[in-house]
Design goal:
By secondary structure, the chain is of the alpha/beta class. Helices cover 24% and strands 25% of the residues. The protein has helices at residues 37-43, 83-97, 111-117, 164-170, 173-179, 192-203, 216-224, 271-280, 331-342, 346-352, 355-361; strands at residues 8-18, 21-30, 33-34, 50-53, 58-61, 63-68, 70-71, 74-75, 99-106, 133-134, 137-140, 180-185, 206-209, 229-230, 259-263, 285-288, 300-304, 307-312, 315-318, 378-381, 387-392, 395-397. Strands 6, 9, 10, 11, 12, 13, 14, 15 and 16 form a 9-stranded parallel β-sheet that branches. Strands 1, 2, 3, 4, 5, 20, 21 and 22 form an 8-stranded mixed β-sheet that branches.
Length: 412
């Protein structure tokens, strides 16, 4: 909690994203937290130590990306020998983009890869030194459908015939408990459906459904068993059918509906599909980049896991195929695209990249919000939602104090 001796910073001449609205107000932070100005003025009888003129801009919580495989030449599944460098530099680069917290994502891998990389992908605080906060890993696969594997190596895929024991053999349950935020599974894979409640109880991780060919009945049972999110909606899943809508159909269910990640890079999902999803379940939308190692770098050849990826003009394909291998978009770009695709308000688009991901992960008491007591992870945006200034833990992040080392230039 802030100390009375900590300096107080005021953001003024701005519209603040709070209470599902943009309100003309000031925002105060102290000791790395958003604070109540009444306490500052009346209880402590003091004025702000620092005043920041936002020049009529928007003050938003920092963006949260719950699915990103890498950036700046680094890949969280492939760079096992350089995993600390990968986390450090991706975290710093994302911070400068306005993404103040994220879930580093691993694609389907061998058990030895999980045991190597997961201890480095667990939660860590954000700062100008660390970069964006790490919220825990998103472990995508390998308990997924071979028919909807996308950019996952077929040889790495597994079943859970022995239930929880197979998850332990693959990841190590303690690894998940300590270092993962959530896992993505396909509920029709042998043993997975029955194991979902046990996995949640044993590790405390969230469970998302994705890379699946499951029917509506199976995904409904998986959701009832505790799977609370859909991974990159529309991509790598049973296509919508009027008599069996599959995983997409959960957005129209009568009961509680899941959160869903959606990639708004203009490549992975048609704008009409984005609009349909959002109108069906606006409170569940979580914008994700699903970015891979080429994000923020030129066209060329990169890696995702052990596979080569060709990147040209914002399109990333597994070499020699037409299979998408993640995106190269930033979350700020996805926010702006979402408004173009759906006609949604700025508030709705911003909450899809802030509040909703935090709610999905159960951390909305401190992330994704500017309510009093939340972490002072703050963006100043212009009228077009371009990031102008970034603060993490109350400290401004700039290229002068946040240094990013790209791993390598792409091989053409």
């Amino acid at each position: 909690m802030p100390s009375i001796s900590d300096p107080v910073t005021q953001f003024y001449n701005c519209r603040v994203l709070r209470g599902h609205a943009l309100v003309e107000d000031s925002l105060y932070m102290q000791g790395g937290k958003i604070v109540d100005p009444a306490r500052v003025f009346w209880d402590e009888r003091r004025r702000p130590d620092v005043r920041i003129d936002c020049k009529g801009g928007i003050v938003s919580p920092g963006f949260i990306d719950v699915q990103i495989n890498g950036a700046y030449g680094y890949d969280f599944s492939n760079d096992t020998a350089e995993i600390e460098d990968a986390v450090r530099n991706v975290s710093r680069g994302l911070l400068l983009q306005g993404c103040t917290a994220y879930c580093p994502t691993t694609v389907s891998s061998r058990p030895d890869v999980y045991r190597t990389v997961l201890p480095h992908l667990g939660p860590r605080a954000g700062s100008v030194e660390n970069g964006a906060a790490v919220l825990g890993a998103h472990v995508e696969g390998p308990f997924i459908s071979p028919h909807k594997k996308g950019a996952h190596e077929l040889a790495t895929l597994r079943t859970a015939a022995r239930g929880l024991a197979d998850f332990d053999a693959c990841y190590g349950l303690e690894n998940l408990r300590r270092h993962a935020a959530y896992v993505t599974v396909a509920p029709e894979v042998e043993g997975v459906l029955d194991a979902i409640p046990e996995l949640i109880a044993a590790t405390g991780v969230g469970v998302a459904l994705g890379h699946t060919n499951a029917t509506t009945d199976v995904v409904t049972r998986a959701h009832a068993g505790g799977a609370g999110m859909v991974t990159h909606l529309f991509n790598a899943m049973h296509a919508f059918h009027q008599r069996d809508p599959g995983l997409v159909g959960l957005l129209g269910s009568a009961g509680p509906r899941p959160f869903y990640g959606i990639i708004c890079d203009g490549v992975h999902v048609h704008p009409h599909s984005v609009r349909i999803a959002y109108y069906a379940h606006p409170e569940g939308a979580c914008l994700v980049t699903d970015a891979m190692s080429a994000q923020s770098l030129p066209n060329g050849r990169y890696k995702i896991g052990e596979m080569d990826v060709d990147v040209h003009g914002g399109h990333a394909y597994i070499q020699g195929t037409d299979t998408f291998a993640g995106s190269t978009a930033t979350l700020a770009e996805c926010v702006r695209n979402f408004i173009k695709f759906t006609g949604a308000s700025q508030v709705e688009a911003l909450e899809n990249a802030t509040l909703h991901p935090a709610q999905m992960l159960g951390i909305a008491d401190r992330k994704g919000t500017l309510e009093h007591g939340a972490d002072a992870d703050v963006l100043i945006l212009d009228a077009g939602l371009h990031v102008q200034r970034v603060f993490i833990g109350g400290v401004e992040a700039t290229p002068d104090n946040v240094h990013v080392s790209e791993k390598k230039l792409p091989v053409s």
